[in-house]
Amino acid sequence: MPVNLHALAEHHIPQVLEACHDWKELAQHGPPYWRPRSSAELRRKIVDAAGPQLAQAYSFVLADDSQLVGETSIHAIDWRNRVAQVGICIWRPEDRRRGYGRAGAEAAISWALDELGLLRLEAWILATNKASQELFAGLDFAYEGTLTGRYQHGGVRHDVVVYGLTR
After folding, report:
1. Which of 107, 128, 158, 164 could form a disulfide bond with 5, CB atoms 3.0-4.6 angstroms apart?
2. Would I find Repeat among this entry's keywords (predicted)?
């Protein structure tokens, strides 16, 4: 499935807000690094990554030929140690398991390693999100451990597993 990666921009905001309206469905798959609460929050992300200084996070939208299908981000960047986290979110259930996640993650990982010069990437994934664990394991990320009770959703604490890739 062909997918294009675009830096988050002003004209994406209405589509992103519409796609992310079902927070309950999205929240069960992972921490809310992405799910925007408002257009102002998305605009802050755009401004924060606009430079000229290096940003702490870069957000991208994923598009197929007809619509936006998800996002990927390089975030929690530690420039001193050249380490960051990578995330992927395919917004609608009907768009999942169609190759968008893999294509988006591959593009973001390549960009982070080659363009930003990062040396290590981590994927923090809910222990119950087996699809994302399989995705990152298939991208040569290694399981490194579990953060017990790291994420709270619906009044319940959930474990987060960490996968890492070191160049």
Report:
1. 107
2. no
